[in-house]
Structure formats: C-alpha cells, structure tokens
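Researcher: I'm preparing a figure for a lab meeting and need a structural model of a single chain. I don't have an experimental structure, so a prediction will have to do for now. The sequence is pasted below. Please return the structure as tokens so I can convert it later.
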Amino acid sequence: MIRFKNVSLQLGNKQLLKNFNLRISKGDKVLLAAESGSGKTSLLRLILGFNTPDEGRILFNKKVITTETVHKVRRQIAYLSQDVDFPNGKVSEVFKDIFDFEANRHINFSEEQLIEKLGEFNLPHEILNKNTSIISGGERQRLGWALIQLLDRSVLLLDEPTSAMDEKQKQRFIDFVATTNKTVICVSHDPVWQIEPMKTITSFIA
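Model: Understood. Here is the structure written out token by token.
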C-alpha cells in the first residue's frame, strides 16, 4: 500500500533518511521509535507530500506520490499531528467546518455522532462550546482521536498521539490501533506502544 524505495532526505545539515526502504501492506501497523530528531515526523510528512525526498520514490497504492497525485493520497489519510492543530474557534463549529470540506462532504456526520464519541472518550459535551485555544493538551488529543475516527479514512498517521494522556486513556487508543483493520503508522517514544502487531522501526539510515 505504501512503499519507500531508496529514499533519502536531508534537512539543513542533517541526514534524516538515507537509502531508506520500507513496504507497508494494507492493514499493517508500524511504530516509528527512532531517537529524537531522527526524522520520524518528516517520514509522515513525506507520505503527505509536505516534504519531497532528495532521492528515491514514495508510492501509495503503486503510484508515485507527486504534486499531481498527493491530493488523492491525502483524501485516504487521517493525520493526527503531535500538537493536534485544530483551527481557532468553538469546538462544535471547527468540527462542522472540517466536515463541510469538499473532501469530507460524502461522510455522514452529525453533532449527535460527535457527542457520542465524546462520551466514549470521557469528554463532557460542554466542551463543544469551548474555544480550541483554551482546552488542555489531553483534551485536544482525545478530540483529535474523535476526529480521525469519524473521518474513517483507510490510513492513520499518528504523531505522539497519546503523549498528554494518562495510562488508562492511552490504553483505549492502543487497543483501537491493535484491533483496527486500518493501516497505521505511529510515531511514539512511549514503550507502551511496542506491542503486537506493531512492527517497530528504529533507524532510517541504510
């Protein structure tokens, strides 16, 4: 489904990826657990087309990711960034705006569905009236999880997705990833993510 073929990437004076090869099949679970500054987030950005490799190719469903193909690729991916970059605004309105995007208009979304998901994640429905700028890090992460589950995309890219959660909260989402049929690439230093069926990668330099 996703393939890195001899990919190299240098940012500034640092070589992040060098002749990197990786094949990810549909439904695979991959954990990127290399040391800080090694290029884990950059690898996710390469898949999303936000970075371009210096050498090599990245394929998604056997097609090379280019400026011409990347928009179709992004429609199949739900990305949970480390800081959960919600636009500024009331939570309910931010979610409504996201599902009003052309790429998401086919999705059956309602505020009732969102409230149900908030309950699953131990978030009060009153959070819908709060501004995204004042909610806590843990709340932002759980709202991010609510969003990617409601988007129901086939590929999940997760960047430190439980860093602001307690152990009980973490386990809920780890269990989800372990049992979902979606393809998942997760960045995390937290050893609790090193479980079956995650395939752990610790270096991007061949």
